[in-house]
Amino acid sequence: MAADSELNRSSRAARRRPGTSPPNVEKIRPRSGLSRAEVIANQRARIFRGFATALAYHGYEDTKVTDIVELSGVSRATFYERFESKELCFAAAYDDGMERLAATVAEAAGGERGWTNQLSAGLIAGLEFLAADPPLAHLLFVESLAAARPARLEHERSLERLAGVLRPPVDDGEVSEETARMLAGGLASHLSGRILAGEAERLPELYNPLLQYLLAPSLAALRTTDERRAAAL
């Protein structure tokens, strides 16, 4: 039995992905002065970070709650106080990561005038956000495709939200809803491939080709509109 246990640990260790280090866990000391709400928020953030790191080691299917609590620095009991299952924890971690990514993009875009400038600023901010946290990028764009149904549905909703952002105002080139959905899917797929290849930290290098890709349909629509107007004269 002991031999089997040791073999299992060795097998799991062999599947860990290179270049990924456990996070430095900030443990809450007794009488820290934090309110209960602050303690819970701290624990949730640590669990999410530990989960992301565990996923980068093992992948979704092979990640166990034991891995998550080990990397989070919380007890198993604390984990189950916050989340009923690994699946629900993943869905919450995905939602938290996507909300933070969306807030980063929105803040960057909000300081610009015109849809093209907003798209450009939002794109580079999003790429830099993901590059700064490769395990989170992996969770959002790779493991979400392998996760249980609730998280997979959230991923599809995120693509719908992204598609809405990628549809410019009519004056900037009319783009159909279906085209915007394809743009969103293509963008997510390309990011997923690069992140899976271990290139998350280099995502900002994709800024120029990705911006051209995202602007191409609206520029084509504007050219078509101009050609029709010229033909009507």
What's the short version?
The protein has 233 residues and is an all-alpha fold. The protein has helices spanning 2-14, 36-58, 65-72, 76-82, 86-110, 115-131, 134-141, 149-165, 177-196, 207-232. The chain starts with a helix and ends with a helix.
Walkthrough of the structure:
- There is one protein chain.
- The chain is mainly alpha-helical and 233 residues long.
- It has 2 domains: 14-83, Arc Repressor Mutant, subunit A, CATH 1.10.10.60; 87-232, Tetracycline Repressor, domain 2, CATH 1.10.357.
- It is 70% helix and 0% strand.
- Helix 8 (149-165) packs across helix 9.
- The N and C termini lie far apart (86 Å).
Proportion in β-strands:
under 5%
**CATH homologous superfamily identity of the largest domain:** Tetracycline Repressor, domain 2
Number of helices: 10
> What would CATH call the architecture of the largest domain?
Orthogonal Bundle
Instruction: Supply the CATH class of the largest domain.
Output: Mainly Alpha
Extended strand count: 0
- Biggest β-sheet, characterized? none
What class would the helix/strand composition place it in? mainly alpha
Order of helices and strands: HHHHHHHHHH
CATH-derived topology of the largest domain: Tetracycline Repressor, domain 2
Mean pLDDT: 83
Helix fraction by DSSP (H/I, runs of at least 4): over 70%
**Rg, Cα atoms, Å:** 21 Å
Between the first and last Cα atoms, what is the distance in angstroms?
86 Å
* Overall geometric form: elongated
**How many separate domains?**
2
**Parts with pLDDT < 50 across at least 5 consecutive residues:** 1-16
